Task: inverse folding
């Protein structure tokens, strides 16, 4: 039976050849209309369906069976509502009525998307229908139409996907990431959940693009995207807003220990070489991390906080991560001031070179001095190279600064004993200049320094320029008779293939492998042994950097390091100091330092809150390490007292008094602090502002609980506060 005959039953129409057929204008028009419907049904563009009075399927166009290979007997008689599921039902969205309800209510079904299973796939149909009643008002079932809109849905989804994803990498684009962050923060605010947001910026990607062209740069970006996605996995969403920037949303993550480990792994993996078109390209990455709701509750605030953290990571040397802190606003302002002053610094006498001795492990005599640039600003005092060197690289000042330093160092070294060399740090950007070997030759000629006394310290990032190009520069430099040292070995871009071809004379063991090497269970001694053995096999010298205690000195010597550098022997010296010491005899240094390594304590002078029972006190923190601190400001505190130290920004630490004298206490933390990616320390977790009552938020901001001169304790105050004459900012979050 056709759908036309189904409709004709009971309508007054009969077969045109049957008895009683009356020709009329209206009958002719209706017949033409029904013929058109019959033609539409046969075309396969759409089809018709009908149900009986109990909403069981009673009719379905033959084209459906032919198109999908279904059997009529499997479908006819089945409850119509069981054959389909609306998209809302499939998504378990209870905000919309299910199809069975619409059929039971005998409502008109306006065009409605429904899911249909076929060969393991889910098709999308659009159905419409109207309830049919006889002359007595009795329900007869539904009559309706349907069509397959799977292809149009897929096209729409693909269009939507393209609108929300990056064409090159397939990652979420800026629009999608902004939407995701906004939706997460909006939904999490009521449930008091957290969300971490990380911004990544590739270091030295521009040089790859400029050197090898955009096709290579695009392939590099795709490989970076794949590495980030693999590391993040299903823990979060990765996006590329554009250029060489990436970002990551990590819902329900606020542990800064976990985020630090993830960031460090990203830095290590992204920094590994990329084999592209026969070249091994090396880049780096800097990462800034912000966490909602601690660093902001609105998307704009969180993104801005992460951007400031990224700015700080790039400003402090690149290849690092930073967590946002309120101090970074001032840091960004200071960086802009450094940038302005740096542009004209070579026209002043503010720069000077200082020299730290590198001594022979056997004789303790100086074999070489490492040159370190110092900037004595007339208004802001000494500015660390860790601050101004990255800025110089960003504003293309590193080449003139490097050339000035190279010339100054060679002139200074000419005044030293002939057997002592000088090592100069060379920026990767300076090394990349095509005329670098020529410039070194010119400086040696102009100053008269013997080439064998000059040592160029480079990091593994110089291999960014490609192995062949870099190798040619190495060969040109070695032809001059200049020595080469590989600095910071093992910290960023290490690859043994570099050592196979690069003509290094020396490997410098980074101080991160020396620091803490004497602690039980530390793996650094084994790493040092491996580096030393490798260097000896390649007939290279080794320098252990950053040695500060006598137990560290004994260990690095026992592991076979040929040379030692660190404060155990001397801080960097001025040229005048070196000339004065060399005039009095051979340059040799005795080991002077603590007997044993101790976890470094940063000298600080910051006001903090001390909470004991229901009372809050004011105190000053004198120094800080991962495991404890020295605080001052409370009298009559017995040993074993437990405090909660409020370090600011929601950072609360449980501490036990281990030493006490007068108004000063040495406290040990129940849970050690962690690094924020630089030399600062922070807690793993923070107290969420969403969980704090207004009075507690006031306390976390460094004010008293009741907003008055002192808190209003529920119990009697057990300790007396001693006023400490200090004016200092709160500890940064």
Result:
């Amino acid at each position: 039976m056709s759908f036309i005959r189904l409709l004709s039953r009971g309508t007054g129409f009969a077969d045109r050849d049957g008895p009683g057929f009356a020709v009329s204008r209206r009958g002719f028009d209706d017949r033409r209309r029904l013929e058109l419907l019959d033609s539409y049904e046969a075309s396969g563009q759409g089809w018709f369906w009908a149900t009986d009075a109990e909403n069981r399927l009673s009719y379905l166009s033959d084209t459906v069976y032919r198109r999908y290979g279904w059997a009529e007997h499997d479908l006819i008689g089945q409850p119509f509502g069981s054959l389909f599921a609306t998209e809302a039902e499939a998504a378990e969205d209870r905000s919309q009525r299910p199809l069975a309800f619409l059929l039971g209510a005998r409502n008109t079904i306006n065009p409605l998307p429904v899911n249909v299973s076929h060969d393991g796939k889910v098709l999308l149909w659009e159905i419409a229908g109207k309830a049919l009643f006889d002359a007595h008002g009795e329900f007869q079932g539904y009559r309706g139409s349907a069509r397959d809109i799977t292809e149009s849905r897929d096209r729409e989804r693909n269009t939507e996907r393209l609108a929300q994803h990056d064409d090159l990498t397939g990652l979420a684009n800026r629009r999608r990431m902004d939407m995701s962050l906004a939706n997460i923060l909006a939904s999490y605010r009521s449930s008091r959940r957290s969300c971490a947001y990380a911004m990544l910026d590739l270091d030295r990607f521009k040089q790859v693009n400029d050197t090898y062209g955009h096709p290579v740069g695009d392939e590099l970006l795709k490989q970076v995207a794949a590495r980030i996605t693999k590391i993040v996995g299903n823990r979060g969403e990765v996006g590329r807003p554009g250029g060489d920037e990436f970002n990551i949303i990590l819902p329900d993550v606020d542990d800064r220990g976990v985020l630090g480990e993830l960031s460090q792994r990203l830095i290590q993996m992204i920094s590994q070489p990329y084999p592209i078109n026969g070249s091994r390209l090396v880049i780096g990455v800097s990462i800034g991390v912000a966490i909602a709701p601690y660093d902001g509750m609105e998307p704009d605030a969180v993104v801005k906080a992460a951007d400031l953290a990224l700015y700080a990571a790039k400003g402090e040397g690149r290849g690092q991560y930073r967590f946002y802190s309120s101090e970074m606003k001032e840091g960004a302002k200071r960086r802009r001031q450094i940038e302005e002053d740096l542009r004209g610094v070579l026209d002043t006498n503010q720069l000077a070179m200082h020299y730290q001795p590198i001594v022979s492990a056997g004789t303790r005599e100086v074999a070489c001095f490492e040159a370190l640039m110092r900037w004595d600003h007339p208004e802001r005092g000494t500015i660390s190279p860790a601050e101004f060197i990255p800025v110089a690289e960003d504003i293309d000042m590193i080449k003139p600064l490097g050339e000035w330093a190279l010339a100054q160092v060679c002139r200074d070294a000419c005044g030293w004993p002939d057997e002592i060399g000088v090592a100069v740090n060379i920026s990767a950007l300076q090394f990349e200049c095509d005329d670098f070997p020529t410039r070194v030759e010119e400086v040696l000629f102009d100053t008269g320094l013997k080439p064998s006394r000059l040592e160029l310290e480079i990091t593994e990032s110089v291999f960014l320029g490609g192995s062949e190009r870099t190798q040619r520069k190495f060969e040109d430099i070695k032809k001059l008779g200049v020595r080469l040292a590989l600095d910071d070995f093992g910290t960023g871009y290490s690859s043994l293939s570099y050592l196979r071809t690069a003509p290094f004379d020396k490997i410098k063991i980074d101080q991160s492998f020396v620091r803490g090497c004497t602690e039980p269970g530390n793996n650094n001694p084994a790493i040092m042994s491996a580096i030393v053995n490798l260097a000896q096999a390649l007939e290279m010298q080794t320098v252990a950097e950053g040695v500060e205690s006598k137990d560290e000195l004994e260990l690095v010597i026992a592991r076979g390091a040929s040379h030692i550098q660190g404060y155990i022997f001397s801080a960097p010296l001025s040229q005048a100091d070196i000339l004065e010491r060399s005039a009095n005899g051979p340059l040799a240094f005795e080991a002077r330092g603590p007997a044993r390594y101790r976890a470094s304590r940063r000298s600080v002078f910051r006001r903090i809150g001390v909470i004991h029972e229901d009372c809050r006190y004011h105190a000053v923190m004198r120094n800080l390490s991962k495991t404890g601190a020295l605080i001052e400001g409370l009298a009559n505190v017995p040993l074993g007292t437990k405090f909660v130290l409020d370090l600011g920004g929601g950072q609360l630490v449980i501490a036990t008094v281990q030493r006490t004298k007068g108004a000063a206490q040495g406290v040990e933390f129940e849970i050690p602090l962690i690094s924020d990616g630089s030399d600062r320390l922070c807690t793993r977790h923070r107290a969420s502002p969403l969980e704090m009552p207004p009075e507690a938020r006031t306390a976390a901001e460094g004010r008293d609980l009741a907003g008055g001169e002192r808190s209003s304790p529920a119990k009697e105050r057990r300790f007396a506060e001693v006023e400490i004459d200090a004016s200092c900012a709160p500890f940064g979050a």
